[in-house]
UniProtKB/TrEMBL annotation:
Requisite cofactors: a divalent metal cation; Co(2+); Mn(2+); Fe(2+)
PANTHER family named in the record: RIBULOSE-5-PHOSPHATE-3-EPIMERASE
Catalytic activity: D-ribulose 5-phosphate = D-xylulose 5-phosphate
Enzyme class: isomerase
Protein name per its UniProtKB record: Ribulose-phosphate 3-epimerase
Residues the entry annotates as binding a divalent metal cation: H34, D36, H67, D173
InterPro entries noted in UniProt: Aldolase_TIM, Ribul_P_3_epim, Ribul_P_3_epim-like, RibuloseP-bd_barrel
Enzyme active site: D36, D173
Gene Ontology, cellular component aspect: cytoplasm
Keyword Zinc: yes
Gene expressing this chain: rpe
SUPFAM superfamilies for this protein: Ribulose-phoshate binding barrel
Cofactor mode of binding and number, as noted: Binds 1 divalent metal cation per subunit.
Any one GO molecular-function label of the UniProt entry: D-ribulose-phosphate 3-epimerase activity
Length: 217
């Protein structure tokens, strides 16, 4: 069976203490660090942009997984490459030329991801799978942490079959917790983003709670 990676989302971290929060989740067993960029336009919330992501890079020793909920995407690809993103995941709904966007992300030296909102069918990315290293299935409407999981297991199963033997990750983002994680893992997901479920009950002063939360997923 597939090895499951846990990617804590620092959207649920202390925004005044990102460096120590990143160090804490990595010390407590995070496989990747998930970074949610929101523009107040594609999604109804604003987080941070490339300069902040470049500052996070100095602390991330694992894999920096940058999920950009922004439109347009293409003018910012080079900035995220310079900021040190390992994976850059853009939404298929963010513009009319996702094929070009994924080519540009790889061209800038990053792994390319494509994300699907809950209302978007698997078929929307079928012709992009040779250009993608990761497909992110949103299990909430993007914009905020701590929302209720929307069951997308049928979409995950369909995508895993479409992907076949290509080396493409399926990442789940939104509402992942100890109850929902086994459902999406059984359907074929191998990277689980978790924000509130990792950070709840802990802090940089009490990081062992993060480790217990990660192991519980
Ligand atoms: C949602 C973000 C997610 C979010 C997940 O817009 O893309 O990464 O932080 O948070 P939880 O795990 O709390 O649903
Ligand atoms: Zn995300």
């Amino acid at each position: 069976s597939r090895a499951i990676k846990i990617a804590p989302s620092i959207l649920s971290a202390d925004f005044a203490d990102f460096g120590r929060e990143i160090q804490a989740i990595e010390a407590e067993g995070a496989d990747w660090v998930h970074v949610d960029v929101m523009d107040g336009h594609f999604v109804p919330n604003i987080t941070f942009g490339p300069p902040a992501v470049a500052a996070f890079r100095k602390h991330v020793k694992t894999v920096m997984d940058v999920h950009i909920m922004i439109a347009p995407v293409d003018p910012y690809i080079d900035a995220f490459a310079k900021a040190g993103a390992d994976f850059l995941t853009a939404h298929v709904e963010a513009g009319p030329h996702t094929h070009r966007t994924l080519q540009a992300i790889r061209g800038a030296g990053m792994k390319a991801g494509v994300a699907l909102n809950p209302g978007t069918p698997a078929e929307a990315v079928e012709h992009l799978l040779d250009l993608a290293d990761l497909v992110c299935v949103m299990t909430v409407n993007p914009g905020f942490g701590g929302q209720k999981f929307i069951d997308m297991t049928a979409k995950v199963r369909k995508l895993r079959a479409m992907i076949g033997d290509r080396p493409v990750h399926i990442e789940i983002d939104g509402g992942v917790d100890p109850v929902t994680a086994p459902l999406v893992a059984a359907a074929g997901a191998d990277v689980l983003v978790a924000g509130s479920a990792v950070f709840k009950g802990g802090s940089v002063a009490n990081p062992s709670a993060y480790g217990a939360n990660i192991r519980a997923i």
